[in-house]
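Worked example (supplementary).
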Amino acid sequence: MKHLKKLTILIALLAAIPVLAACGSDSGTTEEATAPTQAEADKPATGTLRLFAYDDTVTDEQLNPFRKANPDVDLKIATFNSNEEAAAKLAGGFEADVVEVCLDEAEPLLQREQLRPIDTSGITDWNDLEFRDQPQVRQNGEVIMIPLSAGPYGIIYNTEEIPEGVESYEQMFSDEFAGKIAVEGSSSVAPLGVAALTLGFEDPFNMDSEQLEEAKQFLIDHQDDIRSYPDSDSDMVNLFKTGEVVVANGGRGTAQDMQAEGLPVEWVAPTEGTWSWICGLGITSKAQNTDAAYKLLNFYASPEAQAISATNGFVITNPKAEPLVPKKYKQTSNPASIEGSIPLTQPDDMAAYTKAWQEVRTG
Amino acid sequence: MGVPVAHVPTVTGERPGRLSRMLRPLAFMSLPTSVLVLLFLVPMGILVYFSFQYGDLTGQSGFTLTNFSDILSDPLYREIAWTTFQIATIAMIAQLIVGIPLAYVLAYKAGRFELPLLLALVLADELNPMVRIYAWRMLLGREGLINEALMSIGLINVPIDALLFNKFSVIVVLSTSYLTYTVIPIYASMKAVDAGLFEAARDMGAGWFTTFRRVLLPLIAPGIFIALLLVYVPLFTDFAAPTLVGGTTGYMLGNVVSDLVLENGNLNAGAAMSFLMLLAAGLFSLVAYQLSRVRQGAR
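After joint prediction of all chains, the assembly is encoded as:
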């Protein structure tokens, strides 16, 4: 019996070794990722390159030119739904060389030191890129991501149900549309941000406690008017498609997706103001193929790749791409179209936002 | 004359036999035990460890009880726990109300359709949960099949909004999502009950309800206990249904864990919340087990 006990303990310990080893494995480096030399940069990429991004960033249409130019690279793609999810997976042992970073969501990646500073001399178009001077692009003076796409947030409405249109968040929350409104609820920032703009607060992403309380109360007061808090773009599209809602807050890209599906919707910039997300690519602290990673970053920043990105409804960051952008997308892809909008950033006191949001959800 | 040497059986001849007899079952057990330890106990240990830690994965960290005290002292979490309890309990009762008669039909009345019906029940569970939830949205929605049908027969003039995006729709979706796991254990325990007992009860003047209450229910109590373990406990942690059909009111404990971990990046608080739910589930299982023993003892 004693032997049995000892053996069981041994088996337990042996079984735990891989897990413990994984827990204590190499935590990567936060040293700047060295850019390849010009000679290396001119050669096609080789080896395995692991890319971890939102699914609309890694479409075949977007990546096929890279694959064609680098036939020897084994490109492995994985997708996530938020940077929080990406950070959790990377912390759990999932490994990638390049990760998509959005300025409003980057905090978990930064907290866990999962990004390596980028040597911008290795990015050919760096000096042309829009938003490169956004404060969040640099952390402690070092560049942590290459801004590659952006998009404004405003109001999406059904043009058949509301032919006269919607101009403001105030109008969106009026009795006219009671029960037919959706407010994006994938995180606490969007719904509380919309409430803040409706209430006239200047910085929806850094409200003080009093403002946060007001924004929370605003959403609670309008609970009966709001049909749902969609958790994703696809859920939002479904709500419009099934006639559950006629107006919602949302990104211009989402509205374009809906139009592509034949839905009669329009996107407008509300009079209270718009905010814009900015996303790009970063190199992870555990990146093993930094040469190929730089190659991929350069590809995404290139005019050719940026022109493809424009057709997805995104604002491009490399002005050199403008001549290549199809006429239909010239206006929406122009960085000037989001000039003056509030950059979407993660609130300093994220926990307070989450708590307020939980209180809203509890009613 | 030499004294014949008695043949003493050598010890070495027995040892390998005993050892191999002892080791064989251990070797046999080692793989499943390793899998259990690796995939169940170790993650559970990590969860408990994180729940007693403060700080993030790279910053300062150490032992703390704050995660638990924060959760237990916060009236917001108590309110969410109460909502979750209401939704999960009603969904469980609804499943038992549907599941017990369904298991009865399968066990005693289905005849040659027993196996196909059982397979159909299992196959229904194979459906992707997201597809199932969106199917419910198509049924319960403003322009959904139920509203369209009611309007076409003139029962209503305007669609009923209350069918979707509230606690009711969460209960409906949860009740149907786990029905297979409610029916199968109850069906299995019914198969072990001799149908002649019902006839004997009838002969002694018992009506169907008395027969159910005094004969069938005590005998299938272990099956109900297993169904409760398999279904009631996971209902508390579900967050897909409240997210997709809960509208503005169906926020549950599963959503809290999801928000704490994915939005706040507070793995420790999320682990503490999960650990508390695990403790509650353990307590509930103990009570349900005792009750099922009492019911069995009552027969």
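Two points are worth noting when inspecting this output. Residues 80-297 of chain B form a domain with the MetI-like fold fold (CATH 1.10.3720.10). The longest strand of chain B covers residues 53-54.
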